[in-house]
Design brief:
about 210 residues, mainly alpha, 10 helices, about 80% helix
């Protein structure tokens, strides 16, 4: 059977796995953005927290994905459902680019612009939401873009803990020594990563062009 025929024959399964993959990554990214951006803002306000926050985020990135799943397994609430475990691991892996780019984007705002804002009587909160974040948005988006691509790749490992996704085909293919199964998982995952990279790239450029 050719690869094309294989895809046609297993189209339903591949679609289901791709939707599971997208769902896991989407929820994980919402969690990572909800935690990462506030942490990135926090370290711009409290410089003493910069080293520990970025250090812990860096440390998480260095842990092999299967090992991270293993570290999370003993936690009762997470281990009760494999999808919770996978989403938590993906969110943790996605934190570093978001925190780092949020910090870099805000710190990269011209100090003269801040002084103008303060001269207009803006509070620190107003300065953050009306000046710093809008100017840092394209940099923050670049971090979200990188984090999403990383999460799509790591999500294939989620099948190892029974969370589903396109990794199911990859693991089945390895177990059966069948390249068609491996490609049935690898090709859609690669296409998802490319689509996410392209889409966020366009959005990033659009935000960078905003006056």
């Amino acid at each position: 059977m050719s690869l094309k025929d294989f895809f046609i024959a297993h189209w339903g399964e591949i679609t289901r796995a791709a939707l599971e993959h997208i769902s896991m990554v989407g929820i994980a990214m919402l969690l990572a953005i909800g935690v990462g951006i506030p942490l990135g803002i926090l370290v711009t306000r409290r410089r003493t927290l910069r080293a520990p926050v970025l250090g812990i985020s860096n440390l998480i990135q260095t842990i092999p994905s299967l090992a991270l799943f293993g570290f999370l397994l003993p936690l009762p609430w997470l281990a009760a459902r494999s999808d919770r475990l996978a989403i938590t691991a993906l969110a943790l892996y996605s934190l570093l680019p978001i925190i780092r780019n949020t910090y870099t984007g805000i710190m990269g705002v011209d100090p003269a612009i801040r002084e103008v804002g303060r001269g207009m009587g803006m509070t620190d909160g107003q300065l953050l939401f009306h000046v710093e974040l809008p100017l840092a948005l394209s940099t923050i988006m670049a971090g979200i873009r990188v984090a999403t691509v990383i999460a799509i790749g790591v999500a294939t490992i989620a099948a190892a803990v029974g969370a589903g996704g396109l990794g199911e085909f990859v693991f089945r293919g390895v177990a059966m020594v069948d390249n068609q199964f491996i490609l049935a998982g690898a090709i859609p995952a690669a296409l998802l990563a490319l689509a996410a990279d392209f889409g966020f790239g366009l959005l990033e450029k659009k935000l960078a062009r905003k006056p």
